[in-house]
Amino acid sequence: MGYYPKITYGSPTTTLLFTLPPLNKPGPYGIADAEAVGARSLSLSGQMQTLHFREDQLFHLKFDDVPWADMAAWQAFIDYAHLGNSFLYYPDASGTAYDEYWLDSSGGSGVANQSIDAWGPTMSDRQQATFELVLRKVPGGLTHP
What is the number of structural domains in the chain? Predict the structure, then answer.
């Protein structure tokens, strides 16, 4: 299983091993989507002012054909992450490199007015699930040297 990722979370530590790797991963691990966080304003004279607070790194994971047998473990992880708790993502389960993330989006469509996030895996008749996750790297979070 060596090159498949894993997630560890909680105390005591729970490990979520991936049965299959995510699809359509970005390039080499560590190259993630970047999102500038700040504010922009335009003056009456047409000048633009940009206040740049930070640069966030987002990591998109798309899963297809996740066995139904794995979904209870994924649900436990989502329940933990939806509370705003951080977790460690290892791009290679047998490796030592990791980064700390929050769950930014779990790809569902929330129906509650005050929904922060929703998880809506799609189940197929082949007893497989499909879902997407967006991970936001914790600024200054734990990172393996």
Answer: 1
- For residue 8, give the nearest of 75, 83, 101 by alpha carbon: 101
Query: What are the φ and ψ backbone dihedral angles of 41, each rounded to 5 degrees?
Result: -145, 150
What the block records as the tokens of 6 is: 């894993």
The residues that bridge with 95 in the sheet, in sequence order, are none
Residue recorded with tokens 């008749």? 125
Tell me, yes or no, whether 36 lies in a domain: yes
- 65 close to 23: Cβ distance less than 8 angstroms: no
Chain-centroid distance of CA 127 in Å reads 24
The single residue listed with the structure tokens 């700390």 is 100
> Residue 114: its pLDDT value, please?
57
Residue 128 maps to a domain: yes
Question: Residues, the chain, total?
Answer: 145
> Cα–Cα distance between 102 and 36 in angstroms, integer?
17
Residue 29 domain boundaries: 6-137
Question: Could you state, in chain order, the average pLDDT of each consecutive group of 10 residues for the chain (145 residues)?
Answer: 84 92 67 81 90 85 88 94 94 90 77 66 82 88 74
